[in-house]
Amino acid sequence: MENLPASTESRRIGRIALGDVLYRSAIRFGARVAVVDGDRRLSYRELDDLSSQFADYLLEAHPEPVQVATLCANSADMVVAINGIHKAGHVWVPVNILLDPAQIGYILRHAEVSCIVADEALSTQPQIAELLHGLDLPVILVRAGAGSTGGRTLANVTRGRPAALPAVDIDSGQPALIMYTSGTTGNPKGAVHSHASVYSAVLANVSALAYTEKDVVSGMLPLFHCGQHVAMATALAAGASVVLARGFSAQATIDAIARERITLLIGLPMMYAAILDDPRAPSADFSSLRLCMYAMAAMPRVLVDRIAAAMCSDIVLVTGQTEMYPVTMSFRPVEHPHRDANYWGTSTVVCETALMDDDGRLLGPGEVGEIVHRGPNVMLGYFKDPAATESVQKYGWHHTGDLGTFDEDGQLLFLDRKKDMIKTGGENVASIRVESAILSHPAIASAAVVGLPHPHWSEAICAFVVLKPDSECSEQELIAHCRPHLGKFETPKAVKFIEALPLTATGKVQKHILRKQYENCFASENP
Length: 527
Prior knowledge:
By secondary structure, this protein is of the alpha/beta class. The chain has three domains: 11-203, Rossmann fold (3-Layer(aba) Sandwich); 248-417, 3-Layer(aba) Sandwich (Rossmann fold), CATH 3.40.50; 421-517, 2-Layer Sandwich (GMP Synthetase, Chain A, domain 3). 31% of the residues lie in helices and 24% in strands. The strands form six sheets. A nine-stranded mixed beta sheet has the order 11-12-13-14-15-20-19-17-16, sandwiched between helices. The longest helix has 18 residues, at 44-61. The mean pLDDT is 93. Keywords: Ligase.
């Protein structure tokens, strides 16, 4: 083995590197449109050239691997930057721009970034401008206005540079990105993924979701999240086109589907509901759609039926985590009309899924346990947090913190977040089951169910509910509505009507805030 060649070129032969994905697609699909960003369209060849030029700039400034952050909304420039970072062998740190400046600052400092790619409009906001000034790091501006003729803009730093793939030695197992979790109970943790872990998820998605060069993929979810990022990366691997949007609008999405002939629509259940509720939906052209994908929440059966009737009959739930690059599991509700909306289905080709008890024992069908995964799409670990990494990867599996059970056909049913399971009167109650019953009431827009301290029941079920505009419902009416759908011990003991649920920047309900704020709700009850 000692006589094998060790040059950079020889080491490239068998490597797995995310920058190579775009490079190889550009060879195959050079003139095909890779990215649509409003009126701007980049072909595969243009995207490949620009990202290589940006990589050349980064390598001149930082010859050795460093962390490079993006502070951007979706744009063609952001896609250029991401691929340039990967081609340079640097580590991409996507930052959620919806976070408050203090959290953004925490991530940038904790990740030890060496430079930042930022939207010009965002960088000039007073609090962000103050933050960037205090960090005193190089900032490359993207989506820069016509007046930005000087300084570090993406256009300026790439102009005139070589468009060849940089001759960089990249190991398949080295870090490719650090993506921070939503931090529902404290500071976010940085999940470190290698080139190989993301690449394995991309190949699994090409297979599981049948991506081809004929596909046109929506990009209305933010690229700083793992779901939309891996959808974009999968599209670029397959030679498909990605249609970017800087946020969700039902009307804009309807227009984009018809104009760009989108084939894969990726959204949240609430987005699909908004599209179908739009006055233009009955006359909209959805004929190009071949697959409607959704994530983040269960989809009510009535919404599944509406999508199947009006938009596309092939509908799929996809799951994953920042720590376990998506897709991990998928479920097609139209093919399983008698299964609960909370089914997650079966694993992809790269992901093994099991259920485990607290002692590390794997469980069989019908038993309830924590959902655990293992496979090449798992993160390397949490950045600078070995204790948290050891905890989440104990017994040789990635622990999701979710509870589930396999049915007799091997289909996984999600029951609840482990921390959200309510223990009342000696019974375990899945909060998501109670929420499903509440949400079936026509007046309810959103709901969150938690267990609150109770002198007799240990925990009592309390529902926090947001009404739809111009709708009415009383506590007694909602509890009565739930009784036919739930067991007696599962029915809420109290209902609190609130203006809005506390949410993270990614839209996850912060139940710990509700628990803390209402912890004395049942304190006066007799034991």
